[in-house]
Amino acid sequence: MKDTFFRSMTWLHTWVGLLVCWVLLIIFYAGSLSYFRHDISIWTAPELHQGVLQQQTPQNLKPQLDKVQQLLQQKAANADSWFISLPSSRHPYLSYGWQDAAKEPRRRGTFTEEILSADNQTVITDKRSSRGGDFFYRLHFDLHYLPVIAARWLVGLCSLFMLLALLSGIVIHKRIFKDFFSFRANKGPRSWLDGHNVTAVLALPYHLMITYTGLVTFMMMFMPWGIMTAFDGKDSNEKVRAFRSQAASEQVHTFDPINLGSEDVNSAQLVRQQVDQVYVLSQLLPSIERHLAHKPIKQIVISQPQSPDAKVNVYPDLAKEVTDKRIPWVLNPFTGELISKPFDQVSGSKATHDTFMALHTARFSEPVLRIIFFICGLMGCAMIATGTVLWAVKIRQKQAKNIAQGHKASLGLRLVEGLNLTFIAGLPLGTAAFFYANRLLAPQLDGRAQLEVDSFFIGLGVVGLCALISTGLQMWRTVLAFTALAFAMLPLLNGLTSSQHLFDNIATGQWVLVGFDLMSLIFALALSFAAIKCHNKATEKAAKSTRNRTVIHMNTQVMPSTHSTIDTDIKTASQGGQ
What we know:
Elements: H1 5-34, H2 37-43, H3 58-75, E1 81-85, E2 94-99, E3 111-116, E4 123-124, H4 133-142, H5 148-172, H6 176-179, H7 189-202, H8 204-217, H9 219-222, H10 225-230, H11 236-249, E5 252-254, H12 262-271, H13 285-291, E6 297-303, E7 311-316, E8 329-331, E9 338-342, H14 348-361, H15 367-398, H16 400-404, H17 411-440, H18 448-469, H19 473-488, H20 490-497, H21 502-508, H22 511-577
Helix pairs in contact: 1-4, 1-5, 1-15, 1-17, 2-4, 5-8, 7-15, 8-14, 15-17, 17-18, 17-19, 17-20, 19-22, 21-22
């Protein structure tokens, strides 16, 4: 503890932020991109850019289900499950797939997916393998190369440090409202501090919400003792499965077929097929629409599709609701009767948990709200980045005298400056490398999805090697300028490697693809602005250094002349005295 509470909070804010800032930068950056996870996935699949993207309409629903059921019966009659994903705002195309039974217990079987064109005529089976936006989504809490449990513990601890940094930052902010409107450019550390304060205060509600709800997602991992005590099992995994099974059963209302209402009986009689227990999915639509209150259908999963015990699980599209629940309406495909459905009301704790999860993922948000969340996420990145740069600038100022005398900067300063360049400038470059690899690698190349991911980290590593050479403004300018050029060329790359370019997508109203290209250009402009600022600052420092050297040189020339004049005067005076 320091001598005052304020100084103690300042020390806490500095160190809890600095110790985990670069991991937090990855988390915030990848999490911000995850708001457009599905949009990125669509861009990384150029095979879908023409004749596939569509919206769900009641008129197309029946022929689409008939066509998909026909294809599934031909290709996967003996599959363990059938999956049908209908067009939605986040998934604007129709895909279907099947999962074979697992050969080993507690393992999932092989899953195969195909895509149906908008005219129900073409089946796309050769879509390139890519992680797409799912890579960034998983990266922001799994960190990719680390073991999953270790990565989530690390991310959770970093999130806890982030929450401490936010709370201590609020405490030490004596002028929080004034700082909201204060930014002084070209003032050295003062400018970095103003940038840190503005980005922190402007999006403070978002930062608190996203950090706290992120910790809620790890709740069961951080505090498992209640589950470990209350549920039976041989190990922790069995106890967790028992807890989840009970939690799921308490959210489902199961119906007794004997007590069906007259409306259900009539619907069952209309749907039931008497010959060989055959069912037609499209004939279940009236029953599905009535039970779902005409909500759009997101997905249909048929378990044991060719068995007399087949069940149809219908998941409504709840994208506009602030909830994270995923509980299906279950129907008997032969009769259309409702087997189970989610309870209309859930417990307060479950509703709170679902709301926190929905707020963190923003699955309920429309495009405008997602853009706002995305901007707030980038402001979080800026808050972290300006904080680390501010620390490095202040430490370099303290060591300026020793550095001017020819001594090296301290190891800590060189490490922080290197990590700053690597992650602040390297994350955008790695992202651009990921997108270029998606289009330039052969579509049928084995392991290409992992090669795309490797490209991201190779781009990050290249900047790390550059940081070993230099962390000066010239290196910053070079990396930022190259990254800006890479993002500026992405729309051209898309036009050359896809069936449609930017203007085609505008004409056909494919706003997901248009938005990606426009966002690439915005990134290019922002990075270009940063590169120009680095260039101007480097030029200014070089000019200042030149002026200083000139002054020193002039002084060294003037001083000998002055000394000789003094000596002459003394000699003359001496002779005169003699």
